[in-house]
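TICKET: design request
STATUS: open
ATTACHED STRUCTURE:
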């Protein structure tokens, strides 16, 4: 399913009981409302965009196939206690940015995940040897004026889209 980037909210029960839905790319929405993905039994993984401010009750309940939840922001968004089932809280792996595990382990709702793992992969430097055109966008889709290796090395830590691949830069 390809959701337009212009969508700001995933509405109540929008994909409820879509049992064939196995993966979905969530656009940069502000909110995932009540029961949005409830009953999507084939859903195995979900990436929560940095733009999400809140995830409402039952948003991902009754999704027994959910094995991983990935958050790309260091600050946990608001998550109601029952957004996920206890089965998911107990067995799914929650991936969070390096250095933010303690925040998630203390945050309401997120602290219910028994398996929280910090993303350890990251890039400290980007080298563009042999590449004619390097294209860098921020996560809002805005192309950045990168013209040289020096420009690349001046990027602040965070996530970027470099030649169509999401890349984390650490310093």
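STATUS: resolved
RESOLUTION: sequence designed for all positions
ATTACHED SEQUENCE:
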């Amino acid at each position: 399913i390809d959701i337009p980037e212009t969508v700001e909210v995933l509405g109540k029960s929008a994909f409820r009981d879509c049992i064939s839905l196995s993966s979905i790319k969530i656009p940069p929405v502000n909110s995932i409302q009540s029961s949005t993905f409830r009953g999507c039994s084939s859903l195995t993984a979900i990436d929560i965009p940095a733009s999400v401010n809140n995830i409402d009750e039952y948003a991902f309940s009754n999704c027994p196939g959910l094995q991983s939840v990935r958050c790309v922001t260091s600050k946990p968004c608001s998550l109601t206690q029952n957004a996920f089932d206890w089965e998911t809280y107990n067995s799914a792996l929650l991936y969070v940015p390096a250095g933010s595990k303690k925040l998630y382990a203390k945050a309401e709702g997120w602290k219910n995940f028994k398996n929280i793992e910090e993303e350890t992969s990251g890039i400290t430097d980007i080298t563009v040897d042999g590449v004619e055109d390097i294209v860098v966008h921020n996560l809002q889709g805005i192309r950045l004026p990168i013209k040289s290796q020096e420009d690349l090395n001046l990027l602040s830590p965070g996530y970027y889209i470099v030649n169509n691949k999401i890349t984390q830069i650490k310093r």
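CLOSING REMARK: The chain has a mean pLDDT of 87. The radius of gyration is 17 Å.
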